[in-house]
Amino acid sequence: MQGNFFRVERINDRSIEDLNKYVYNKVKQIIEGGKPAAIKVEAYKAQRSLTANRLVWVWHGEIADYLNSIGKRVDILKENENGKLEKIGDRPYEKEDIHYQMKAKFLGMVKIKCGNSIREEPRNSSDLEHNDFCYWMSQIEEMAFDYWGLVLKVQAKDEYSRYKEAQLI
């Protein structure tokens, strides 16, 4: 969620008074800064945390490092004049490659139309709410173990560990 927000869980005189004061001060600050203000009210959604996001990128790096250590490479392809793909080179795996693959495999693909062209790309992991992001992480962790025997780093008290513990209860 971008910008400033004020979360309201219960409606009572105190919460409405606090909300009015908060909105007034924020709008005043923006207008005094020479810009118009906009107010958006929507249902609260628990977004993924930065710690969970950092951990998933650590995992992508671990997987890429492992694939590189066993000699796996990313093939670079080019479409020839007959419309067939041919390999023109290769390079080591990077964590961005793993991120793309994990999004495509577990989050699915969407079609994007830009002008007259249509391309397909994975859904954005940044759109996932907290529990969905943690579930995606569990899919990555399971695949790393099942496919490659990798045990990915997890800190004992991080958000993902708490999510996993809650699933066991």
Q: Overview of this structure, please?
A:
The chain has two domains: 1-44, no CATH class; 50-168, Orthogonal Bundle (NinB fold). The protein has helices at 13-32, 50-69, 95-107, 130-148, 159-168; strands at 74-79, 85-91, 109-114, 117-122. With 169 residues, it is α+β, with helices and mostly antiparallel strands. The protein has a two-stranded antiparallel ribbon with strand order 1-2. A two-stranded antiparallel ribbon has the order 3-4. Helix 4 (130-148) packs across helix 5 (159-168). The radius of gyration is 22 Å and the shape is extended. The mean pLDDT is 88. Helices cover 49% and strands 15% of the residues.
As laid out across the biggest beta sheet, the strand order is 1-2
Category by helix and strand content: alpha+beta
Largest sheet: 2 strands, antiparallel
* Radius of gyration using CA atoms only: 22 Å
Q: Using DSSP, what is the number of strands?
A: 4
In CATH terms, the superfamily of the largest domain is NinB
- Average residue-wise pLDDT: 88
Write the H/E string, N to C: HHEEHEEHH
Which CATH C-level class of the largest domain is it?
A: Mainly Alpha
Apparent shape: extended
**Helix count from the secondary structure assignment:** 5
Q: Based on the coordinates given, report the CATH architecture of the largest domain.
A: Orthogonal Bundle
End-to-end distance: 30 Å
In helices, the fraction of residues equals 40-55%
Number of domains: 2
β-strand amount: 5-15%
